[in-house]
Amino acid sequence: MKKMILDLDTGVDDALAISYALGSPEIELIGITGTYGNVLVEQGVRNALAVTDLLGHPEVKVYQGLPHSSTTDHFEVLPISAFITATTASAMWKSLIPTAPSKPNPR
User: Fold this and answer.
1) Can you tell me the distance from the alpha carbon of 6 to that of 14, in angstroms, rounded to the nearest whole number?
2) What is the pTM for the complete model shown?
3) What does each C-alpha distance from 9 to 1, 2, 26, 66, 68 come to in angstroms?
4) pLDDT tens digits along 81-98
5) Percent helix, strand, coil in the chain (nearest 5)?
6) Are the C-beta atoms of residues 56 and 31 closer than 8 Å to each other?
7) Helix (H/G/I), strand (E/B), else coil: 8
8) 46-63 residue pLDDT tens
9) Residue 1 near residue 26, CB atoms below 8 Å
């Protein structure tokens, strides 16, 4: 069995990656690091915690990464990403995936 760590900005596509990893008999998902991308890092980490909890794997450790690149002092979600997230993914998260009771692990 191969150990795996996923580095994600957990949206719909990454929720599927988490699901596939947890469902594979060939993979042991030992951690998730949250990053910025289509959502801010804080939202991605909340989403990763919610997905692992929903799928019955709260033991998978989730760590919050940096909120922006090392060459900038902030990160903003692109308008197209915000539009897609607001119209599709946001509705899914709010209606299907409850907020997880767990918190990210300290670095």
Assistant:
1) 9
2) 0.79
3) 25, 22, 24, 11, 12
4) 776 665 555 555 555 666
5) 40, 20, 40
6) no
7) strand
8) 889 999 998 999 999 999
9) yes
